[in-house]
Each structure stands twice: as C-alpha cells, then as structure tokens.
Amino acid sequence: MSHSSPYQQSFTTIESAESATAATSIETAESTTAARDVSPPAAVSAARDVSPPPAAARDVSPPAAASAARDVSPPPAAARDVSPPSAAHDVSPPAAVSAPPPAVVPAAARDAPPPAVAMAAEMEVDDVDVHEVPECIASMIDRGSVESHRLFLARRTAMEMLRDRGYSVPEAEIARTLPEFRAWWAEKPGIERLAFTTTLVSDPSKKVQLVFCPPEPVKIATIREIYLQTKEENLSRLVLILQSKILSRAREAIKEIFKFKVDIFQATDLLVNITKHVLKPKHEVLSADQKAKLLKEYNVEDSQLPRMLETDAVARYYGFDKGTVVKVIYDGELTGKRVAYRCVF
C-alpha cells in the first residue's frame, strides 16, 4: 500500500477542480449558443410573416428544435389560407345578366293616342273655351295695337289736364272710348291729327295748343318745325308730348325760340291721371286778392310759406308758375280734414 504525500493529494485536487470548471464552461457556452440561435423575437417574427423557419433553426440540435417548436405556435388557419392578392386571378368575369321579360302593355295604353296628338287636342279645347269667356271679361281684353292704346291714354289725360287748368275742352273729346279712338285714328293715321287748340274759359285771348312729337328723338330741327307751325296761332302756352327723348340742345332751343312757356311731358307720364288718386289732396290756386289777404293775416311774405317746387308732378300737371300760392286741402281717415298753403318756387 502506497501512501501519497500531501503535495501529491493537493495537486490531484486542483486538477479535478480545473476539469470540472472546464466542463461546466463548455456546457454553458453550448447552451448560450443554442439559445442565441433560437431567440424569442426571431420566433415571433417567423410566426408573423408566416414563412418557413430560417436555416439556423433547421440546424439546431433536436432538444433546441423541440424547445423552439414549443415556443412558436403555428399561424392561424386564416393566415395560412390567405394568398397574395392578384388582380388577374382573383377578379372573375361578371356573370351575364339575363334580360328582363318584356312588360305586358295594357290594351288601353296601346289604344291611347301619342302625346303630341293629345296635347294638340287639349289646345283645341282651350281655344274653344277662350271664345266662351263671358262678355264682361272679354270686353276687358285689348286685341289692338299697343301704340294706339298709348296714344289714346296720353291724349285723354292731356285733355283732362287742359280742362283742370281752366281751358275749354269739349266733353266728347274726354268721353271718347278706345274703340272709337282707334276707328278715328285708322281713317287717317298721322301724328299731326292728335294736335288740339283751345282757349282759356276766363280769358279767351289766351290760347294753348297741344302737340304730339314724332317717335324719333327730338332735335333742334323738330323744334323749329313746330315753331313754324304755331307762330301764326298767337299762342300764350304750348304743351309738347314726347314719345322719345329730347336732346339737350333742343331743350335749350325751346327757351330761345319760344317767347312763352312750353310744358314738356313724356307720353308715358300721361298714361294715368295722378290727380284721380284717392290719396292725392285737393289743390286750389289763390287769386291775387286771396293771396294778399292770406299774407296779411299771418303777417308773412310769400317766401316764408312752405314751398312746392315747380318741377313737382302736381305743379306740372296744373301748370303752376313761380310765386303761385296753392291751398292744399287734406281730408282722410288718418289725417282728418286740415288745410295747408304752399308757394311754388
């Protein structure tokens, strides 16, 4: 029996410890390498992309492969069945649409006339109904020309204006109806036939003439022609009714050629008599004595009275001159009856 020395026993113990330490290091290194090759993030990425495992996973030893298979679950069936989209393979041609069966048209619809024929028949019925309009309504329908109607209204209002100014106007001229005027006008149509001359009732020496101008714009030549026609009449006033505009130079020529006042109206201004409106108050011209009495009573001058412009529609209708004092009488449900005075300026 041999006995080893204490030094030999210590040496043997050191070698055994080194061998155990080397074996443990080798096993730890192999385990770390296997774990690094099959890491959880790589397995999750493989499950998400639904692709075969990488080559590193195939080379793993059986124990490591089994562990990787346990950690990575197989993809769901929906992910396995979904194939890459392909417009050429996935879009199938549309199925042929079968034509609907022909509609059955009722016999009444087949026998009905075309829409154009039905509309024409309705229009014929409407035309027949127009002739059956009651006489009271049919008399209000104007089937004549617009020009004759406009001239009729303008001339009638002008006649009423002359009568309200105090001139002598026959009642037949104002009472003439539209059919009578058209019959009279159709005999010899001419703008000169519409002229009318009359005198003042209170002073026959004062004469006025009503003249219609042609539909063309009024120029200086037109004014001179009218002057030549009226200069022998010894007129004190002239009323011109225009059917068109008047040039500015022609308006100035009127002031230079005529020595008396000339009133200018558009035919469209005389289509309606404004003095017949229910809201228009009554106007009365004061005589010289009445004017003097009024100014003395209130101890004022005529320039201190309320004013009415000479271009006012009512002043132009009655032909008020500057300095004329007018008595205005209001009589209404809201205003009651009251009197006011205006002086024309």
Low-confidence spans: 1-14, 32-97, 125-130
CATH superfamily membership of the largest domain: RNA polymerase, Rpb5, N-terminal domain
Helix amount: 40-55%
| Strand neighbour order, sheet with most strands | 1-2-3-4
Mean pLDDT: 75
Order of helices and strands: HHHHHHHHHHHHEEHEHEEHEHEE
Per CATH, the class of the largest domain reads Alpha Beta
Supply the CATH architecture of the largest domain: 3-Layer(aba) Sandwich
**Quick one: how many beta strands?**
8
Spatial shape = globular
Please, could you describe this protein's structure?
It is a single chain. With 345 residues, the chain is an alpha/beta fold. The protein has three domains: 8-73, no CATH class; 146-272, Dna-directed Rna Polymerases I, Ii, And Iii 27 Kd Polypeptide, Chain: A, domain 1 (3-Layer(aba) Sandwich), CATH 3.40.1340; 282-344, RPB5-like RNA polymerase subunit (Eukaryotic RPB6 RNA polymerase subunit). 47% of the residues lie in helices and 13% in strands. The protein is built from 16 helices and eight strands. The protein has helices spanning 6-37, 40-49, 55-58, 62-71, 77-81, 87-90, 107-111, 115-130, 135-138, 146-164, 171-175, 178-187, 220-230, 248-257, 288-298, 313-318, and strands at residues 196-199, 207-212, 237-242, 261-266, 282-285, 307-308, 325-332, 336-344. The strands form two sheets. It has a four-stranded mixed beta sheet, with no helix packed on it. It has a four-stranded mixed beta sheet with strand order 5-7-8-6, with no helix packed on it. Helix 13 (220-230) links the parallel strand 2 and strand 3. The protein is globular. The chain starts with 5 loop residues before the first helix and ends with a strand. The relative contact order is 0.05. Residues 1-11 have a biased composition (Polar residues). This is RNA polymerase subunit H/Rpb5 C-terminal domain-containing protein. Residues 12-98 have a biased composition (Low complexity).
